[in-house]
């Protein structure tokens, strides 16, 4: 398979490293499913005028949202070849100053979300 026909699934694609990666891959003619908390964030930063780009609004802390995004990717492109679990954030504050809710949210996005993405992508990876 040529690199140009690869299908990439990239989380956290509306800014930073994820956005840079998506732009570079699209310039190379790759097919990209890109996720963000809001679809508008992707559409405003990445030209969506190509059939090779699928912007997806995904709540990575919601396993059903992750599963639906992967199903939509496979429905559009037929497969997934590369997964980039880029989404995440840093939690600032002292250990004793952070609430259980803040710790849980951090773990949902930074630990469990990448596991859910991989769990749902694995059946499609060749």
Explained architecture:
The longest helix has 22 residues, at 100-121. The protein has helices spanning 16-27, 39-45, 63-77, 100-121, and strands at 7-10, 31-36, 53-57, 82-84. The chain has a four-stranded parallel β-sheet with strand order 3-2-1-4, with helices on both faces. By secondary structure, it is an alpha/beta fold. The model has no long low-confidence stretch (mean pLDDT 90). The protein is globular.
Q: How is this structure best summarized?
A:
The protein is an alpha/beta fold and 126 residues long. The chain has helices spanning 16-27, 39-45, 63-77, 100-121, and strands spanning 7-10, 31-36, 53-57, 82-84.
For the structure shown, list the relevant keywords:
single chain, 126 residues, alpha/beta, four-stranded parallel beta sheet, 4 helices, 4 strands, 14% strand
List how many beta strands DSSP finds. 4
Estimated helix fraction: 40-55%
Identify low-pLDDT runs: none
Q: How would you sum up the major sheet?
A: 4 strands, parallel
Blueprint of the fold:
Blueprint: E1 7-10, H1 16-27, E2 31-36, H2 39-45, E3 53-57, H3 63-77, E4 82-84, H4 100-121
Parallel strand pairs: 1-2, 1-4, 2-3
Helix pairs in contact: 3-4
